[in-house]
Amino acid sequence: MSLDAALAAKILKAVDDNFDRQMEFTKTLVRFASLRGAEGPCQDFVYAEMDKRGWSMDRFAMDEDAIQRHPGGSPFSADHSKAPIVVGIHRPRQETGRSLILQSHVDVVPAGPDKMWSRPAFEPHIEGDWFYGRGGADMKAGHAAMFAVFDALKSIGLQPAATVTVQSVVEEEATGNGALQCHLRGYRAEAVLIPEPEEEKIIRANAGVLWFRVEVAGLPVHVSHAGSGQNAIEAAFGLIGALRGLEAQWNDKKGEHPLFAPDPHPINLNIGKIEGGDWASSVPAWCAFDCRIAIYPGERPEAMRKAVEATIASASLNDRFLSNNPPKVVWNGFTTEGYVLEPGSEAEAVLARAHQTATGKPLEELVTPAYLDTRVYALYDKVPALCYGPISENIHGFDERFSIASMKRVTRSMALFVAEWCGVEPV
Amino acid sequence: MSLDAALAAKILKAVDDNFDRQMEFTKTLVRFASLRGAEGPCQDFVYAEMDKRGWSMDRFAMDEDAIQRHPGGSPFSADHSKAPIVVGIHRPRQETGRSLILQSHVDVVPAGPDKMWSRPAFEPHIEGDWFYGRGGADMKAGHAAMFAVFDALKSIGLQPAATVTVQSVVEEEATGNGALQCHLRGYRAEAVLIPEPEEEKIIRANAGVLWFRVEVAGLPVHVSHAGSGQNAIEAAFGLIGALRGLEAQWNDKKGEHPLFAPDPHPINLNIGKIEGGDWASSVPAWCAFDCRIAIYPGERPEAMRKAVEATIASASLNDRFLSNNPPKVVWNGFTTEGYVLEPGSEAEAVLARAHQTATGKPLEELVTPAYLDTRVYALYDKVPALCYGPISENIHGFDERFSIASMKRVTRSMALFVAEWCGVEPV
């Protein structure tokens, strides 16, 4: 069943020979500061590159109504990206192999304060084996690898012998609505591969994620009478304390989720952003903080949302002011379920063989308490959804970086996987 | 020594007759949203109104170097106003009376969220005895009253028989540098009156104020590994707790300051503003919060600044991350001493008589734990610096308002005070 050894060797050499070009392509992608809402120019570049390769092109916007009706849809907020989703479809001469969706996202998280970076965040920089830059690891390296697989095959006169849908999405970092929109657009395949930076391992399970904003009102007075007012900022601290209690409860349940039990702290609450007040000498009348918390696979986002709301409501009851001025919980992003990749699929077996051949090592598995777009395909298409990508450090942090050698190994695996899963035919 | 009763009655009637015009003038002032840095148009209006009255005009900028060299100067920050200070000088035909400085500020604190106001903050609105609008009470009502005193006297053919310097300043709400700049410009008088909204009482003492910003660095990581990062927002909470401890210590010392001892809580720390983080799913790398704290009269700002810095430093030592990444304390506004108005001055006696005649009640005194510009004249000119103005509610809050009847009584007092202190002469 596995790939002919001579063909495999030829493909691996082709990947290696193309690798410098692949890194240049990655650099170009990283130079786009494709922050949420600003992914347009990067998507235009991606569109042109796909088009250049002769793929059938599709470009479309989110369908907010359809997303909101879908159980996997996350709420829209004013910050929701309006950038297009770009899809390029490779169609073979003859459909002899198994179809595949390859997907990457171009949206990147904010760089944070410049001074925390050793070099400018959006100037790609290589030092030793590390490729630095915001969004390089997460996940423009993987994005470039999707193209590199086609380019390497083409350099030896080959192409996949099945339909391969290459999807460049947005909103992976905030809602997961980009991947869902591809599903709603009707794209389907017998397997999906998303090359997120996952340590050259296959994701066995991942958590769902909830995003919410808590808005606290205060009672502003002149600070000389601060005792008679209500400081919204300090009221927020109390609510955050209550949410930490909820996080602890949820971590205590990890025994019910064997895949997550080995993780010392699978459920992470993050207070990611806070804003409040207008003036040092006025008791602040408002404070809002943005949170992210994980949920276990199998848990329904709606139920967990209710638990968050109940935690805020009950903490407010203990406060004279907040009980009369209840804080508001706004669901402004991720409302997504986790998933488990069921072991034993043929797609996973093909990837495991490809990884063994490409790297000389068996494919290990990983459970991650973060959001992944693969959930759309695992939960709603019910096809093998493989998340597998390079070794990285500091994604979402400063000096985000990926290992170049690892990226080469991953690209080699991806090429062998495509060749075996889809089959190959002459260009 | 006191004013001839017939003249007093004539003056009081003139104030009453002019009062509608005075309220219109107040409305015009309130319509200027003269927030910090945006006081220019309001000051231009004030300049024109002074000029129209035939006063000698002066308009000048802050001299940052001179302010920084002066012990009463507060640090400049990027937010420091660049709006001019406007001074109009009334000079009599014959200098027979005692000179006087009248001063008001035109800067107002931010309105905060619109929805918290019953009506738009900068649209003056009268309901019953209350005049609503941001900056109406604090202190455009008093500002308009300075003009009203002259207008009322003029309507009966009189004017002060001494030099009266009418100063319209900025930066009262953030640094006190406007009043100090008038002092540095060389303006002096035998007494000063500032009509801040102080419940128709005379301020016996007020607190000094320190403003500072604490900047906390975090160590951002992807939230799925939140435990290995350092959340700058939550680190800030710990520092705020330590500052609350310092506030409690300072309140415990109130026995050493008999004027403040009756106040249950004379030293108020306010956490007025907070900002931190960029993204719900990234551990926040930074958080900064703005504080205001009071100090007792006689305490040196430099010493109290050191106490604040030591509190932050010692709280950071208890934290593994903060001890290696010490938070920064930035002094970005008020660094001012408190003052005591020494009882027994002739100026205070004249105001007490004026108040008794105008309102039928004895003048009471008030100790306030807030900043007042009178400190410049009390501390550095060492002249009687009288702070006295109308009854108000919710200054720095929503639906800020002053009592119209109170403002009329205060204007009557002010007119009698000016007439007795400066004497009057025919226009």
UniProtKB/TrEMBL annotation, chains A, B:
Pfam families: M20_dimer (PF07687), Peptidase_M20 (PF01546). InterPro entries: ArgE/DapE (IPR010182), Bact_exopeptidase_dim_dom (IPR036264), Peptidase_M20 (IPR002933), Peptidase_M20_dimer (IPR011650), Peptidase_M20A (IPR050072), YodQ-like (IPR033687). Its cofactor is Co(2+); Zn(2+). CDD domains: M20_ArgE_DapE-like. Gene3D superfamilies: 3.30.70.360, Zn peptidases (3.40.630.10). Keywords: Cobalt, Hydrolase, Metal-binding, Zinc. Residues 205-317 form the Peptidase M20 dimerisation domain. One of its GO terms (molecular function) is hydrolase activity. Belongs to the peptidase M20A family. NCBIfam families: DapE-ArgE, PRK06837.1. This is ArgE/DapE family deacylase. The lineage of its organism: Bacteria, Pseudomonadati, Pseudomonadota, Alphaproteobacteria, Hyphomicrobiales.
